[in-house]
């Protein structure tokens, strides 16, 4: 399937547990970014599925930045490797903010990068360029697909961990 079809495809609804696990990422994203080097080589953590519902809906058109689930490692890699597109400075203290979620409109092209700063600021930064960000994230997911296939071959019975499992491993 073409990875650049932005209209929402039929997808299974995530379970409540999956949604709660994704919320745990929203709450603790800063720590997971900071310690990315500790866990990024561990496939069970890299391929934790996030159900972020990065969709935009208007007049019956539903478009999505990337279809759920988005792998945790792919999401973070994308944000770290494209500082010009995804990182910004905190309006309160000036430190770099790494967003934990973004949604926007393919019609207007705007994107809201939702993030939280170490100083306590939490909010969104509005930028333009919906399509280039959607492409960057989809390209990252596509480039991780081979690694994912190998992971599944090596672990046919067990899948990825959860954000909660990663927390326990990192002793957060
Ligand atoms: Zn700040």
Polypeptide structure, described:
The strands form 4 sheets. The chain has a 3-stranded antiparallel beta sheet with strand order 7-8-9. Strands 1-4 form a two-stranded antiparallel ribbon. A hairpin with a 5-residue loop joins strand 8 (110-116) and strand 9 (122-128). It has one domain (16-170). Helices cover 42% and strands 20% of the residues. It has 8 helices and 9 strands. It is an alpha+beta fold and 172 residues long. The chain has helices spanning 16-34, 36-39, 43-46, 72-81, 83-86, 130-143, 145-154, 163-170; strands spanning 49-50, 55-58, 61-64, 70-71, 88-89, 96-97, 101-104, 110-116, 122-128. The longest helix has 19 residues, at 16-34. It is globular. The structure holds zinc ion. Zinc ion is lined by residues 90, 92-93, 95, 117, 119, 121.
Could you provide a short overview of the structure?
By secondary structure, the protein is α+β, with helices and mostly antiparallel strands. The protein contains eight helices and nine strands. It has one domain (16-170).
Topology:
Elements: H1 16-34, H2 36-39, H3 43-46, E1 49-50, E2 55-58, E3 61-64, E4 70-71, H4 72-81, H5 83-86, E5 88-89, E6 96-97, E7 101-104, E8 110-116, E9 122-128, H6 130-143, H7 145-154, H8 163-170
Antiparallel strand pairs: 1-4, 2-3, 5-6, 7-8, 8-9
Helix pairs in contact: 4-6
The protein binds zinc ion.
């Amino acid at each position: 399937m073409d990875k650049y079809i932005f209209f929402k495809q039929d997808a299974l609804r995530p379970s409540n547990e999956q949604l709660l696990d994704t919320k745990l990422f929203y709450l603790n994203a800063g720590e997971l970014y900071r310690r990315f080097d500790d866990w990024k080589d561990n496939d069970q953590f890299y391929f934790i599925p996030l159900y972020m519902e990065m969709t935009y809906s208007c007049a019956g058109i539903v478009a999505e930045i990337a279809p759920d689930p988005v792998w945790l490692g792919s999401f973070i890699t994308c944000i770290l490797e494209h500082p010009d597109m995804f990182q910004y400075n905190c309006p309160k203290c000036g430190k770099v903010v790494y967003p934990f979620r973004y949604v926007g409109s393919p019609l207007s092209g705007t994107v809201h990068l939702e993030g939280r700063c170490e100083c306590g600021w939490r909010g969104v930064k509005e930028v333009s360029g919906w399509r280039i960000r959607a492409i960057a994230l989809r390209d990252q997911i596509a480039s991780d697909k081979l690694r994912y296939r190998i992971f599944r071959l090596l672990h046919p019975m067990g899948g990825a961990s959860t954000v909660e499992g990663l927390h326990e491993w990192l002793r957060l």
